[in-house]
Write a structure and sequence with these properties.
The longest helix is centred in the first third of the chain and has 22 residues. The protein is elongated, with a radius of gyration of 19 Å. It has about 150 residues and is mainly alpha-helical. It has six helices and two strands, in the order ααααββαα. About 60% of the residues lie in helices and about 5% in strands.
């Protein structure tokens, strides 16, 4: 077997399989291989779908609040919001009590698109969990939420 034909299963990974960051990266890449082509075929990125869903679940919130929920930097959220507005999936408004603030809401077409893409993405992600029992899936999500919310 040539060096190029070797797969990661043929390689000595040392302690990498015990390092959380490595395992999360490998899992994220597996999910990306499944989900990103579906999103790209619909002219969406994962970050845009996440932003759209956050706005759907939390109407009338500011860009800063959306940014905190999405978990990216403010300029990235601004790009995603601008793209979603151009596509007609969200609208913005200014509350009467403070015209300096901009709030965002999902449009009916945005809600339809979010539901469609969420279903497609979930279908692809479910394939990654084939072989796990329902209890194992629930435990996996519980553990990932725990790790994601840890603060020192």
């Amino acid at each position: 077997m040539t060096r190029q034909e070797k797969t990661t299963t043929d390689m000595d990974l040392g302690e990498l399989p015990e390092i959380l960051g490595y395992l999360l990266r490998i899992a994220a890449r597996a999910s990306d291989r499944q989900v990103l082509p579906v999103l790209a075929a619909n002219d969406f990125t994962r970050a845009e779908l996440t932003t759209l869903m956050i706005i759907a679940y939390n109407p009338n919130h500011s860009l800063q609040e959306i940014t905190a929920a999405v978990g990216v930097e403010l300029p990235a959220t601004q790009r995603h919001v601008n793209s979603l507005r151009k596509k007609g999936y969200i609208i913005q408004s200014r509350p009467a009590h403070d015209k300096r603030i901009t709030h965002y809401q999902i449009t009916p077409s945005g809600l339809e698109k979010a539901e469609q893409l969420k279903a497609l993405a979930n279908e692809k992600d479910r394939k990654l969990m084939t072989g796990l029992s329902e209890a194992e899936k629930q435990e996996l999500f519980r553990l990932l939420r725990h790790v994601g919310t840890y603060t020192a």
